[in-house]
Amino acid sequence: MSTAPEPDKAAPDTHPSSAEPQTALKRVKQTSKRTILSWAMWDWGTQPFNTVIITFVFAVYLTSSSFGDTNFTSQALSVSITIAGFAVALAAPVLGQTADRSGRTVAVLRGLTWTLALISAALYFVRPEPSYLWLGLSLLAVGSIVSEIAGVNYNSLLDEVAGEANVGRVSGFGWGMGYLGGILVLLVIYFGFIQPDVGWFGVTGDNGMDIRVSMLVCAVWTLIFTMPTFLNLHDKPHPGHTAIPGVEVYWGRKPRWIWSWLAPVVASYAELVATIRRLWAVSRHTVYFLVASALFRDGLAGIFAFGAVIAAGTFGFTSGEVVIFGAAANIVAGLSTIAFGLLDDKIGPKKVILISLVALLVMGIVIFLLHDKGAIVYWVAGLIMCVFVGPAQSASRSFLARLIPEGKAGEVFGLYATTGRVVSFLSPALFGIAIWLGALITGESNTQYWGILGIVVVLLLGLVAIIPVKEHTEHSLLR
């Protein structure tokens, strides 16, 4: 009886046997530019939820004085995001495996995208009154759950549109398209509704109508610009894939009533545990990468979630100035992410991640130390941070895509999302705790700027965790 090789002790053989799993990216294929563009248009089309709603407009609206004290609304926002993160961690294994096994990744992505558009439109009903705060936070939390699960399916399509030689560029292009789409929608909203006293269609700022109508624009934007994705990308069912195993085993017969819902959930978590065991036995550094990326990705998410909130609450940006900053930030982030995508293919994704995290840590500390020096500090340090946020995210995705065996994209990216969301409470929780500690230590009424330290701590943990992880070229593959 043969013995299994010790995990991750050496780089893979340059001439692996046919029995060894091969990455999907190693397949010889001619992916057209039209296919790559259609894939990237999903990021362009759904970017309003991340850029406009979560980061620069709606989150700022919810934490404004119309809904209550700044510290209270900021901490309430952190609580809602934390709860949403836990929900994603619970749902990702079930939904990711289901889509992967059925081969209906595109169909599932389409349904989630339309749901996201509906939630965006529903934000119109959040009036600028304290009694509407929890409605706004609830919709924001549910939308972030839908967006994150949709992202699992979107990421799993990367190995259908990229090859091993260009995965960094394709991943960076997709992320960059998202940022550039965010610029355009921000400019449309700002000049169309927020900046003018009387905007398009007679919309004014009375009763928050400029912000609320902007939410409808986000919904329409998502529906229109994701159409190329669903017109040009199609499901490719895998004949060998079956329903989630173990359902009948758990219950002894075909489940009925409530068990028809619970049995697949139980079986999916059992399959998740089996996947983690296989990874641990074959490629432990892949597990280490998942843990490290979970940490630093949560820190990156914290920058997006609270960056504009800090701009308004600490540096005194008006709603219009936040939008202008957001547009500039997206230009910087979009171009840098596309450029770093080229670098990713040349020097490897790990080096891109390390460079990005170090720069983000330095700029986060600068913002904290110089918070009382005026808006110019946030303009400079904040835009420098934007240079590195996107590349770190894109390189993390391309790092994992290089390791996924053919036919396991949904499973592994589902695990990627799950591990990320297991710790997704860290940034929002530490953001809120840091604000509380700041008030306790300084006695100031507004210590929101302390929140950046909570995010810095998470980024530092991610940096420390990623340093010992082996380069993607030295990883064994999941069987």
Features:
single chain; 479 residues; mainly alpha; Growth Hormone, Chain: A; 0% strand; disordered N terminus
What level of helicity do the residues show? over 70%
Head-to-tail CA distance between termini: 18 Å
Radius of gyration: 22 Å
The low-pLDDT segments are 1-6, 9-19, 245-252
CATH superfamily: MFS general substrate transporter like domains
- Summarize the helix and strand pattern as letters: HHHHHHHHHHHHHHHHHH
Largest sheet properties:
none
Strand content: under 5%
Mean pLDDT: 79
Describe this structure in words.
- It is a single chain.
- This protein has 479 residues and is mainly α.
- The chain has a single domain, classed as Growth Hormone, Chain: A, CATH 1.20.1250.
- It has 18 helices and no strands.
- The chain is globular, with a radius of gyration of 22 Å.
- It starts with 32 loop residues before the first helix and ends in a 13-residue tail after the last helix.
